[in-house]
Specification:
The structure is a single chain. By secondary structure, this protein is of the alpha+beta class. The chain has 3 domains: 233 residues, no CATH class; 174 residues, no CATH class; 123 residues, no CATH class. The chain is 40% helix and 24% strand. It contains 21 helices and 20 strands. It has a 20-stranded antiparallel sheet, with helices on both faces. The chain starts with a helix and ends in an 8-residue tail after the last strand.
Length: 602
């Protein structure tokens, strides 16, 4: 059985919009209450408690009305609203409302009054949605009215009734080709398979106290649910791992340095964790999505100390803020430890490649062992900084404007390390110039500058012969590779502007955990949607041209699509993500903040 998508989709939208503005809805949390009706073999379970309260509040909230108005003003949305398909939908909705004698939000509130639950059972290959309406009478009225309309529509088209009506014990069952639904008292069940449908109906009618709710993993997971969670989800990782042990995420091996750097900690966690929980939480003018797995950081294996740090307490560096700051990702990764543990972490090919690279890198660093002597001089606390760059009007301006990227590392012994890194950077620029000249690319000119607490080694792209300032220069003119040293920091950047901004910045961004002081943030990400939108605006004409070429759109269609992206982006403000550990959990959080200002602009 699949679902009737429109009402459920609208429920999700209204619930989300309500949460975005932190509505104070008092919900009596009954985590896992409906789980006793789902099979014990259910591998994924999710629930939203009493969405009726959220829907009712949403109807009265002026901020949501404002946001809906802003969404309607987006070019693509406005075009869709004016289209024939949407007009037909609006007409059908009015017919439904007339039949029910109430507006759809009120009907939806009544239908989902006591909550919505969702489950996936791999044994029966079943997917089911269970709703508890406000009362039996309202459920019967809504389902009978909708059934009557659907059957009349089928009859008018000369088709057979889409649903076969059956009785199962005390329940009414309506079965179609690929799905079906059933009602019992004030309960509505929608499912894709008869087996899972019968199982849930039996549990409902018999008032089962077992099912998924009796499973040990589920009981343990339920204890971690936050009281004000809007929605909550549970995934049985033990069952998923047993069903597909060959899945990469359970292997505890990344096989290559890139995968290990990004996901090594997750491989450790999912190799043994029994379950995963997730929840959607309201925050000021936004939403927080949190996923958590049981994790004993005191028993981290030696090969993953590079990722989590000693005793699992490796902390991400404090993010640096610069003008035009688009994205900052700070993290704890001990590159020297990871390199030394390569034999335990990577496959044979990756280790062969690292061995070859080690020979060349050791040569560059005057015969010093790259892992033991070079990387060991870099602190595990590092960060990436991405920022919009500005372009001087008297110099070539590239047609595609890229942001600047910088890697910021802390040197354990700056005096001993600076000279070697500076020398190798200069050697690299010389090599790029030679290769570039052979391929007809512009050359880089090196310059040196002293700054407080350090120095800058910058480059500038030499204009080509007879090159005049314009806005259609090669993409190369986005780059002016530079290295900077400031106190104990080393900054390797794609632009001299960003290298100097990071080296001289005195502003830092807070990444402290908002709740438990015992939590340690291993990785933190801060995204400015405002700057991201500005970057899209900077490249608007190029994006429109690419859209026309790749999608076959007219210029008007391409402009509508790109401008819609900009308009939607302006509805958002900032986003934060973090990977953190406590004594007993590994947690990933994502926060999105909404721009609640009227008609936000640059």
């Amino acid at each position: 059985m699949t679902t009737c998508h429109s009402p459920l989709f609208k429920t999700v939208i209204v619930v989300v919009l309500t949460a975005l503005f932190g509505l104070e809805v008092q919900i009596e949390v009954r985590a896992g209450d409906a789980a006793r009706f789902f099979p014990a073999t259910t591998i994924v379970y999710a629930e939203v408690d009493q969405p009726a309260g959220l829907i009712d509040k949403a109807q009265q909230n002026p901020q949501i009305s404002h946001l809906v108005g802003e969404l309607k003003s987006i070019p693509a949305a406005r075009k869709a609203i004016e289209g024939k398909d949407f007009q037909k939908f609006q007409f059908a909705l009015k017919v439904v409302e007339a039949k029910l004698g109430q507006k759809w939000p009120e009907a939806l509130s009544s239908l989902t009054h006591h909550g919505i639950s969702f489950g996936v059972d791999p044994v029966s290959d079943g997917v089911a949605i269970l709703m508890q309406a406000k009362e039996t009478e309202s459920l019967d009225k809504i389902t009978s009215s909708l059934l009557e309309m659907v059957e009349q529509d089928a009859k008018s088209k000369g088709n057979d009734p889409p649903f076969e009506r059956l009785d199962y014990r005390e329940a009414k069952v309506f079965k179609a080709d690929n799905f079906g639904f059933a009602t019992w008292k004030n309960w509505l069940l929608i499912a894709n398979k008869s087996d899972v449908g019968r199982s849930i109906l039996d549990a409902l009618i018999d008032d089962s106290q077992k099912g998924l709710a009796s499973a040990e993993n589920f009981q343990n997971a339920s204890k971690s649910r936050t009281e004000n969670a809007i929605a909550w989800v549970y995934v049985d990782i033990d069952a998923a791992r047993a069903a597909k042990p060959e899945e990469k995420i359970y292997s505890n091996r990344a096989d290559d340095p890139g995968g290990e750097f990004l996901l090594g900690g997750l491989y450790s966690a999912f190799h043994e964790t029994p379950y995963l929980t997730g929840e959607l939480l309201p925050i000021d003018n936004g939403l927080k999505l949190r996923f958590s797995v049981p994790f004993d950081r005191s028993s981290i294996s030696e090969e993953r100390v590079h990722f989590f740090g000693p005793d699992g307490k490796g902390t991400a560096s404090t993010p640096i803020r610069v003008p035009g700051n688009l994205l900052t990702v700070s993290f704890y990764r001990d590159l020297s430890q990871m390199y030394q543990r390569a034999g335990d972490l990577f496959d044979e090919k990756a280790n062969d490649d690292l061995a070859k690279a080690d020979v060349g890198l050791s040569t560059l660093f005057s015969g010093r062992n790259f892992a033991d002597e070079v990387l060991s001089g870099i602190s595990p606390q590092m960060q990436f900084v991405i920022a919009r760059q500005t372009f001087a009007e008297d110099k070539p301006i590239p047609s595609i404007k890229l942001p600047g990227f910088a890697l910021v590392a802390e040197l354990k012994d700056p005096k001993a390390s600076r000279k070697e890194f500076r020398r190798n950077f200069i050697n690299a620029i010389g090599f790029f110039n030679i290769v570039g000249a052979m391929n007809g690319q512009p050359q880089l000119e090196i310059d040196f500058e002293s700054i407080e607490g350090g120095e800058l080694v910058t480059t500038n792209m030499v204009p080509e012969v007879d090159q005049k300032p314009d806005t259609e220069a090669r993409i190369n003119y986005n780059f002016s590779p530079s290295i900077a040293f400031s106190d104990n920091l080393m900054i390797i950047s794609t632009t001299s502007e960003l290298a100097e901004a990071v080296a001289t910045s005195k502003e830092r961004l807070s990444i402290e955990p908002a709740e438990d002081s015992g939590d340690v943030q291993n990785t933190a990400m801060l995204l400015s949607v405002k700057e991201l939108v500005r970057l899209v605006v900077d490249n608007r004409q190029h994006l429109i041209s690419q859209n026309m070429l790749k999608e076959g759109h007219t210029q008007e269609e391409a402009e509508t699509e790109i401008d819609s992206l900009v308009k939607f982006g302006r509805l958002l403000k900032n986003s934060r993500a973090a990977l953190s550990t406590s004594e007993t959990t590994l947690e990933f959080t994502l926060e999105v903040e909404i721009n609640s200002e009227k008609s936000p602009r640059e």
